[in-house]
């Protein structure tokens, strides 16, 4: 599984070392030599698991599909990126579950718990 391209549809066979890689960056990470350029590329479709070759000098738009299963393997690459997300409801719509710790909550007030000023005011007749 390629960590550089999330939606990779084919593996490529490196002409220099004859090994299969999901992308050129995967080859660069695992091997010490550079990826050799070639006119004819070998691909392995990840959908039907069949290999095929394409001549890169006469590559056309119709060559973007696997010849065995018509899987469209030339897609816009989706690279992984960090995303910050919030689970749950949107707080702007329903903020009942939020508590602001910066505001001191008022204590429950009853006749049994009075501050000294209130008690003095009740005793003054």
Automatic annotation (TrEMBL):
Keyword Zinc-finger: yes
Top-level taxon of the source organism: Eukaryota
UniProt entry keywords in alphabetical sequence: Metal-binding, Zinc, Zinc-finger
Any one Gene Ontology cellular component term annotated for this protein: mitochondrial intermembrane space
Keyword Zinc in record: yes
GO biological process entries: protein import into mitochondrial intermembrane space
Domain named CHY-type: residues: 1-71
GO molecular function: zinc ion binding
InterPro entries for the chain: Mito_Tim_assembly_helper, Znf_CHY, Znf_CHY_sf
PANTHER family the record matches: CHY-TYPE DOMAIN-CONTAINING PROTEIN (PTHR28082:SF2), ZINC FINGER PROTEIN (PTHR28082)
Protein name per its UniProtKB record: CHY-type domain-containing protein
Organism (species): Collybiopsis confluens
